[in-house]
Every structure is written in C-alpha cells, then in structure tokens.
Amino acid sequence: MKKGKEVPYSLGDNFHFIYANMWAYDKSLIFYGFAEIIFNVILPLCTVILPSVVVGLLERQAGIEKFIQTMVLVFLVYSIVSAVQTFLTSRNRNQYIDIRLNFFSIILFEKCFSMDYGQLEKEKTREELKKSGDSVYGNWQGLEGFMHRNVSLLTNVLGLLTYALVVGWINPVFLLLLLVLSVIQILVFHRAKLYEHKQKNEMSGIRVTQGYLQEQAFDLKAGKDIRLYQLDKLIGRVYAAANNRLKKIKGKIRGVYYVNDIVEILLKFLRDGLCYGYLIYLLMHGLPVSDFVLYLGIVGGLAGWMMKITEDLSEIGRCHYMICDFRKFCDIKDTFSHKSGRELEEEDMALDIVFDHVSYQYEGSSDYVLKDISFHMGKGDKFALVGVNGAGKTTLVKLMCGFYQPTGGRILINGIDIGELNIENYFKQIAVVFQDAAVLSFTIGENISGVPGSKINREELDHAIELSGLKEKIDGLPKGTGTYLNKDMEESGIQLSGGELQKLLLARALYKKAKLLLFDEPTAAMDAIAESELYEQYQDLLRGRTALFISHRLASTRYCDNILFLENGKIAETGSHESLMKLNGRYAEMFQVQSKYYKEEEDETEESMA
Ligand SMILES: Nc1ncnc2c1ncn2[C@@H]1O[C@H](COP(=O)(O)OP(=O)(O)OP(=O)(O)O)[C@@H](O)[C@H]1O
C-alpha cells in the first residue's frame, strides 16, 4: 500500500491547516501559544539563574542586606514568572478545548448536516465520519492534541537547548521534608479532584445530551428531516446551551484547580527556598563552589527533556493521521449545489415535477432500481405511487427530494434541472413523511414547527395538530405541545405510539406549508378509522399543493388524480383508479386481492360479533 495514497496531507499541510484556522478563529491563540512556550522555558531558566545569582553574591562577599534584597527580588521574579506560566498553560488548555468544540466540531456538524444525503448514506462515508469524529473527541488526540503537543514540543526543544544546567537538589536530609510537602500538595489536589468528581454527575448528564445531539448529526434517519425541516438551527441552539452549562461547571472546577495551582506554587517556592538555603548553609561551611555548581547541574533532567521530545514527536505523528481523517471527511465533494444554484420562485403555491427518462442504480449494485421512468406532475396534482415491496418507490421519492442524483435522465422542478437548484432552498419548499422518519427528543411543538418554543406560530401549530388528528391526544397532556418526546432530554418525556407518531409527522408536514408533499406510507401505523378520516380530508389538507404518496393500501389511491404502478423498476401502468381497473392489469389484480382480504376481514368481524 502506498503511503502517499493513505495520507493525503503532509505534516506541513496539517500544520498550516491547524494554525491558519486558529489564526482565523482567534489570533490571540497564536500569541498566547508562543508566550506559553517562552514562559515554559523561562521558568526553569529562573531556577538555574537563582543559584548562580546566589553563588555570585557569595563569591563577591556581598553584605547581608544586599544579599537579602537580591534574594527577595529573585524570588519575586520567579513567583511572577511562575504565576504567568500557570495562567498561560491553563488559558491555552481551555482555549484549545474551546476551538475544538466550538469551531472544528461545528465544521464537522455542519458538514454532516449539509452534505449530499446520498453521500452520507454510503458505508465508506460513514466509516470516514466515525474516524473524523474521533479526531475532535478528547483533549490529547486529534486536532486538540496536535495543538497541545506542538506547544510541548517547542517548549522541550527550547528547554533542551537552553536548559543546560538543571537546577534541583535532592538530599536524604530533605527527603522527609519533601515528602511532607508532597503530602500537603496531594491533599490539596485530592480536594480539587473530589470537587471535580462531585460535578461529574451533572457533567455526564450534559454529555449524554451532547452525545444525543451529536448522534442526530450522524444519524441517517435524522439526516433527512434535519435537511428538510432545517432542524440544524434548533439542534445547534440546544447544543450551545448544553455547552454553556458545561462551560460554567468547568469554570468552577478550574477555579478549584487554580487554588490548587497556587498552593503548588507556594509549596514549590518553600521547597526550593529550603533546598537553596541548605546548599548555601553547606557552602558557607566549606562546600567548594565548584561542587555546589556541580550539584545543581546533576540534579538537572536533560534526559527528561529528551524523553519528552520523543514522546511529543510520536504523539504529533498520531494526531497528524487523525487530522488527515478529519480533513478527508470535510473535503468530500457534493454533487448538488448547496450555497449556490438557482432558487425557485417564491410566489408559487405548488411545484411542477417532471421525471424525464430517469434511471437510478445504487453504488456497488449491479442492477438498476429504476429504469427509464417518465411522468409529469403538474402544479397541484395528487399522484399515488404503488407497487410491490422493493419496486423502487422510496428510491423514487428520494430522487424527487434531491437526496440522490439520477444515474440517467433528468428531474425538472418548475422546469429547472434539480442538479442546478440550490438544494437547500429546494428543501425549504418540500415536506416529506418517510416510513422511518425521525423525531427529536424535543417538545412536541418544536418537533412540529422545527423552531424553538418561543418562535412557534401557535395558530398554525394548533391548525396542523387539528388536521392531523392529534388534538385529542395533546389536549390530554398536562404540558400540551410543550411535552417532551422520549426521555433523552427530559425525565418526564413521553413515548408516542406508532400511529400517533405518524399523525405528528403529518402535522409537521402540514405546518411547513410546503409546495410539494411526499408521503411514504403515511398511514401504515394508523388504525382504520384514523386512516379513513385522513383520506377523507386529503383533498382539503393538500388543496393547491402538489402531492405524491405511496401506500400499500390501494383503497387510498382513489383520492388521487393519477396512479403510477411501479414494477421491476419501471412504470408498468399509469392512469386513474377507474381506468386502471378497466385495464384489468397488474394494478386491478392487486386491488382485487386486497379487496378480497378486506372483505374476508369484514366477514370475520361480523361473524365474531354475531
Ligand atoms: N441505500 C441503498 N443501497 C443499495 N440498495 C438499496 C438502497 N436502498 C434501497 N435499495 C434497494 O433498492 C430496491 C428498492 O428499494 P426501495 O426502498 O426503493 O423499494 P420500495 O418500493 O420503497 O419498497 P417497500 O415497499 O418495501 O418500502 C430494493 O431492492 C432495495 O434493496
């Protein structure tokens, strides 16, 4: 396997990609990154300079007053440098988390929400998506890991070059003292950890919410509805609110850790002061200066710097591959126009649809699902699409939605090739009820309207609920349309039955006031009464709009102007219910089989009642 093929971007490319985006997101990230590197090196330098200053003073036999003054000054400088370094590390760490969550993760979300649905459905894309998701998950891997590791590498390289004399002194006399100081430090740290642990429950609750919302971005079922009902904004808001809550908790935890950091600095200050004091004491009692300096040198950790550089390099390599995964996914090309393309006229109440010799073959499949399909749905027409399982009905609907590009032929919407349309503008004009439609675990009102509670048009919401037959159910709920669905977001959320869910999906399609409505088995889960009531109302519900619906219950086709009977990927018969019955072909055969079944069912019911 050629390596060049596997890794589409060089390390330099990725370096540029990350830092150009950091620059675009927040220029201060670069400056603070450099500042951290400098202070990371200055800090140990201070600890090297400190003893040399002490040696200089002693060698020059400075007076005690001058000595104390200089010591205080040096320790003061050291403390300031240390505090600044701690601040920079903490700031950068949080800023890198911020850019990962609020910039790079959003790029990934947006890509998932907006990319061609047909592309998102492919297995290969889904694998790439999984890998890409990993690259924005966690602090020490992928994109964020790359930022941390670059700072660490540059620090260690600079440190190695300049930190020739590592200052430190370990003496058995001090071992006990150091242990005591370490225990104090551990206790303070433990307190901070305990506090963090206490926040875990709330944090994991928020993370479950975030996880659920992230799943919606990756979920195929949700993907269709997110596009068609522009739910990305609603999800985005809830995600941002969860992010903010998490940010607040993290801020409090950071505060506790900051106290810990300050205690750590003070203890370090005390520890170093005692070490140096002792060395000075020894020096003043006969320890040669050369030994003194030597001791300081050997405590140094050149080996430590080296080890860290090795570790950084290997981690940067790992992160680089993950950035490649991220970029590969984000660079997947769309075949539809998303931000550009032609927009449909606003004034139209309905759309005109032409399938002109359309064929379709799924990638990797040897057969065509649809072959040479041609028909014309004029503005306001109501069509039924029928056929046996697997005939290609859903595929045809997905083509009409703009989820797939036809393999052959053209689809014209108001005379414009669907490939030339701004597909996002087109999505806004259509409503689809899929067999496997997804609802979000938000409120009923938000699910129907696709907007946050405060922005819902109450009158239109009530109207859509009434038309869909869901009014009685919602009136019986204490929180009405403010009731949450499922339990992902709210403990008191409710579970709708299959039929109720279909009514809710219908209400959503009606609320949208779409110009083209597509129903894929919209009543499959409804009881016979609800179904017949709905069909009775269809003419009124869809007046003036173009509509196509798939139903296996052929009784429903009577309400349509035209029926397309699909068989083996072709339109085998087309016409009104009456004309197809007269033709006495496949449609009539299917209808008679169903009528017989209904008749038998009716007889059985009558017998059991007798
Ligand atoms: N994403 C896909 N990749 C490959 N093949 C697919 C895909 N989706 C559907 N097919 C195949 O295309 C054919 C038509 O499927 P489609 O779902 O369009 O049929 P249908 O008429 O809607 O069926 P049903 O009445 O059962 O809902 C089936 O053989 C199916 O296996």
Automatic annotation (TrEMBL):
<keyword id="KW-0812">Transmembrane</keyword>
<dbReference type="InterPro" id="IPR017871">
    <property type="entry name" value="ABC_transporter-like_CS"/>
</dbReference>
<feature type="transmembrane region" description="Helical">
    <location>
        <begin position="70"/>
        <end position="88"/>
    </location>
</feature>
<feature type="transmembrane region" description="Helical">
    <location>
        <begin position="29"/>
        <end position="58"/>
    </location>
</feature>
<dbReference type="GO" id="GO:0005524">
    <property type="term" value="F:ATP binding"/>
</dbReference>
<protein>
    <submittedName>
        <fullName>ATP-binding cassette, subfamily B</fullName>
    </submittedName>
</protein>
<keyword id="KW-0547">Nucleotide-binding</keyword>
<keyword id="KW-1133">Transmembrane helix</keyword>
<feature type="domain" description="ABC transporter">
    <location>
        <begin position="353"/>
        <end position="593"/>
    </location>
</feature>
<keyword id="KW-0067">ATP-binding</keyword>
<dbReference type="Pfam" id="PF00005">
    <property type="entry name" value="ABC_tran"/>
</dbReference>
<dbReference type="InterPro" id="IPR039421">
    <property type="entry name" value="Type_1_exporter"/>
</dbReference>
<dbReference type="InterPro" id="IPR027417">
    <property type="entry name" value="P-loop_NTPase"/>
</dbReference>
<keyword id="KW-0472">Membrane</keyword>
<dbReference type="GO" id="GO:0016887">
    <property type="term" value="F:ATP hydrolysis activity"/>
</dbReference>
<dbReference type="InterPro" id="IPR036640">
    <property type="entry name" value="ABC1_TM_sf"/>
</dbReference>
<feature type="transmembrane region" description="Helical">
    <location>
        <begin position="160"/>
        <end position="189"/>
    </location>
</feature>
<feature type="transmembrane region" description="Helical">
    <location>
        <begin position="278"/>
        <end position="306"/>
    </location>
</feature>
<dbReference type="InterPro" id="IPR003439">
    <property type="entry name" value="ABC_transporter-like_ATP-bd"/>
</dbReference>
<dbReference type="InterPro" id="IPR003593">
    <property type="entry name" value="AAA+_ATPase"/>
</dbReference>
<dbReference type="GO" id="GO:0034040">
    <property type="term" value="F:ATPase-coupled lipid transmembrane transporter activity"/>
</dbReference>
<dbReference type="GO" id="GO:0005886">
    <property type="term" value="C:plasma membrane"/>
</dbReference>
